[in-house]
Amino acid sequence: xxxxxxxxxxxxxxxxxxxxxxxxxxxxxxxxxxxxxxxxxxxxxxxxxxxxxxxxxxxxxxxxxxxxxxxxxxxxxxxxxxxxxxxxxxxxxxxxxxxxxxxxxxxxxxxxxxxxxxxxxxxxxxxxxxxxxxxxxxxxxxxxxxxxxxxxxxxxxxxxxxxxxxxxxxxxxxxxxxxxxxxxxxxxxxxxxxxxxxxxxxxxxxxxxxxxxxxxxxxxxxxxxxxxxxxxxxxxxxxxxxxxxxxxxxxxxxxxxxxxxxxxxxxxxxxxxxxxxxxxxxxxxxxxxxxxxxxxxxxxxxxxxxxxxxxxxxxxxxxxxxxxxxxxxxxxxxxxxxxxxxxxxxxxxxxxxxxxxxxxxxxxxxxxxxxxxxxxxxxxxxxxxxxxxxxxxxxxxxxxxxxxxxxxxxxxxxxxxxxxxxxxxxxxxxxxxxxxxxxxxxxxxxxxxxxxxxxxxxxxxxxxxxxxxxxxxxxxxxxxxxxxx
Amino acid sequence: xxxxxxxxxxxxxxxxxxxxxxxxxxxxxxxxxxxxxxxxxxxxxxxxxxxxxxxxxxxxxxxxxxxxxxxxxxxxxxxxxxxxxxxxxxxxxxxxxxxxxxxxxxxxxxxxxxxxxxxxxxxxxxxxxxxxxxxxxxxxxxxxxxxxxxxxxxxxxxxxxxxxxxxxxxxxxxxxxxxxxxxxxxxxxxxxxxxxxxxxxxxxxxxxxxxxxxxxxxxxxxxxxxxxxxxxxxxxxxxxxxxxxxxxxxxxxxxxxxxxxxxxxxxxxxxxxxxxxxxxxxxxxxxxxxxxxxxxxx
Lengths: 485, 298
Fold this sequence. Notes:
The structure holds two protein chains of two kinds.
Chain A: E1 2-6, H1 10-13, E2 28-32, E3 35-39, H2 41-45, H3 54-60, E4 65-68, H4 71-85, E5 92-95, E6 99-103, H5 114-127, E7 133-137, H6 140-146, H7 151-155, H8 166-175, H9 185-194, H10 199-203, H11 207-214, H12 216-225, E8 242-252, H13 255-276, E9 278-280, E10 282-289, E11 294-300, H14 308-320, E12 328-335, E13 338-340, H15 360-369, E14 374-379, H16 385-388, E15 389-392, E16 413-424, E17 427-429, E18 433-436, E19 441-444, E20 453-461, E21 466-472, E22 477-483
Helix pairs in contact in A: 11-12, 13-14, 14-15
Chain B: H1 3-11, E1 27-28, H2 33-38, E2 44-45, E3 48-54, H3 61-73, E4 78-82, E5 87-88, H4 90-95, E6 103-106, H5 111-123, E7 127-133, H6 140-153, E8 156-162, E9 174-184, E10 190-199, E11 208-211, H7 239-245, H8 250-256, H9 260-270, H10 276-284
Parallel strand pairs in B: 3-8, 3-9, 4-6, 4-7, 7-8
Antiparallel strand pairs in B: 1-2, 9-10, 10-11
């Protein structure tokens, strides 16, 4: 059983890159080779039809907005729709004219019947603001043809058990006019000139005479239509990496205007990632401006969930750091280096703690303050105190069971580089007098790295603070190493 | 005002009534019994900002907060340190039972960024504790923002500010002045930090309590200044060469006694008898050869 999804407004919908176009309060049409290719409802009400010339269109409606067709964006939209319905069936065919065909017989059991399957398809398609028409048949060719009719028409062939009744299907296919066959215009005209009106009349002809008169191609089509010949098609294969671009109809001058296309691309990315069960940690944005230069910026994530809001928020924060010099004509999003989604087992019962462990806020802060603003602390087995504790941007291996050289009475604050202390007349001075109040603790023999021989003391400052100071036996100088916080 | 409106107001937990005696308010014990006794909520209030006023960084503020940090680091949620004055020392924090893997240290460039970061950390609901070091400025508007963020996320917010701001009003729920450590001669050299409560939720304030933040200090044995290793008593390392070439002062001579090897070497170098190799060889017995670069010879 094949389900076809036709996008009648595909050329127009593929152009909807800016938010102001979503509201269809204006007559709009897409043109190709100076002819109208696709019209919206308002334009159709004004009498504008497919195939008219531009002059005719303007004569009928002065305010109509015409756009050049963008086939590349159409294919992108088709691919996105294919990704949306891919979870329902892995046998997805994309017909470049704007029809997507799915093999659904094997999914019927999962979805418990054709009705709930169709509802599921509708739910998925309604997420994207697109118009679509559905049809069911027992061959891809028949499904294609029936998609030009309302769904109720092809539903006549579905029995109450949810199976296709082939004799009923044959009957409704036979009733269709010859024009609905997706064949070359020349062959259709041949049928009409002989006097054939509907497909049923063609079917009654003997195959050999049919082939003689209309050619082998037409016969093969007819046989495929009635599922009497194998109909092999290329199935859609989702790509490994994500690259999509949008070209705007009107240039965008401000960041706010970029929000809609950014959201659109991110939505496609999220669908793509859900399908692939992958996780993007590095997004690359490219903005193409009118002076043909490209502004590139990347967005980096540390946490591993697919979330449209997170992506959008961080992209916006990153975008704020860039100045737009020229109006923007297009935008592209690349996500390579996808890593498998690590699926965490969630606990059945709520954890005792109130706080989550979502590291998204770190991404946000990094996006605004720079990637080296957020640091994590780790403990390393090292002799010298300044090496035993390190801060790093990356998430560090969990340092739980490190046998450190920690001796009691070490301070909680450490100076990254020890600060020299003046020593004058048997007194240590650092913005005030220091008095040693402990016995020495020696650290020496760090021969494998940099040599060190230090005597550590706890000193009390005259203001009451406690300092951790050492006498460097090699430099013969006093240094401040840490502060007791 | 109708009674319904009053009830509404009382529900928000912002009004304290004398009649409410021990209404359970979320707080976590400070880990210091004497301090808990002084606090009406018996600990650090949850979903509020507590302000610690200090004379300088390093007066025992981390020690005071260590029990709270240790407890919260065992639960879910991060501990955020925003704009700390120094680098935290991991081994010492681990020794205080703080899980350092939960710590996030964020360095900011401007006051505006600091407040923004603190708000983000609190509002994320992923941080159980947010420590913010604020500059010596009257930031009452910004403090109000932090209070709202803490209330919204129900986290523990601690801000560190200079003690000179004690007189200026602040929207923080709890305000404490932590005074530097003083050694009490009367109590067998035990040391105390005095904590004065300027403002606290749930009742009257003005309490003072002495906390022994460094109980281990009784085991520290002070040494007289004469025993300190002070070979060179210079303020700048570059002066060292001048001094050693001139005759060494008697006070220096005395301190050489602690370092007989160095002093004898230095003397022979001064007389021009020692070669580099000899110095190296002798130094190897005690130090690494690299030490030469630090040694005031060349």
